[in-house]
Amino acid sequence: xxxxxSILDEMNDRSREVFRRVVEGYLANGEPVGSRTLTRMMSEKxxxxxxxxxxxxxxxxxxxxxxxxxxxxVPTQSGLRMFVDGLLEVGDLDMSDREKIDATVGNGGDVGxxxxxxxxALSFATRGASLVLAPKHEAPIKHIEFVSLGHDRALVxxxxxxxxxxxxxxxxxxxxxxxxxxxxxxxxxAALEGRTLSDIKGVVAQEIDTRKQQIDGLARALVDSGLxxxxxxxxxxxxxxxxxxxxxxxxxxxxxxxxxxxxxxLERKRDIAEFLELTEDGDGVRIxxxxxxxxxxxxxxSLVVSPYMNADRKIIGAVGVIGPTRLNYGxxxxxxxxxAQLVGRMISDRA
Length: 351
Hints:
By secondary structure, the protein is α+β, with helices and mostly antiparallel strands. It contains 14 helices and ten strands.
């Protein structure tokens, strides 16, 4: 990052303007920008030959690329990153965009329904695919119960102090008996009453370690597998709301193979736990361009993401927009930022 910023600092005014106008033109139209086009845009009168020389220098620095012979230039991933970090002008939130997001909040329903509506509005406003990571239910746990549904199926039931109930199907370890299920439930109820889901993992491991003689192997295995459903892929899938996949099909024909990969990732919701981790280095909007985006295998995409917080300023979820690398970052950043702040306020008010 420092090296890229130093390159920008060392550019003269002409090189910086050529670079900025190439990137802005590409983001606006998705097309390479040529020297003749730039001669009509530059703040000073300069020949096309001079601009071509500047563009060649920028290409040598790895900031621009020429996709076809005799074509104009497009920014590279490094060039986009330098533009976003050093030259991007983020505008104010457009009033119509704000109204679209605000209109989704006051329609009643639970938090999940509200987040679903917000995801749809965010996708509509940005013309990208929206990602909303819903918070875990954080009320204290009142009661836990295991219910056998057969030799290879069981249900773990969590009852929260606020009356909320969650059921999860899972495959229990072999050999479970009604008594081992009662023992596992009794152990967890004693250890976890008054705790939240966020506390479960550390508390259970500590309790099992200190009370090894009070729980047999079968019950211990059931505790491990039962609680794993709250940390596993099934929960992450339910927590991630994806809307607007069809918007991604509006790109160029050559992008379709990459879009299919992205669709596959979104359907399987790969590494969803990492989605929230992406935001934990600090609050505010973050932008991941191309291969910087480790969440999905699609390197030709960009992700604009922001966490949202509860009343205690604890990060509990995130909202984001994913689309091609030529996203209109200056417009999308304030939309994502506003949406994240709005979601945080709404969830805090409902707590």
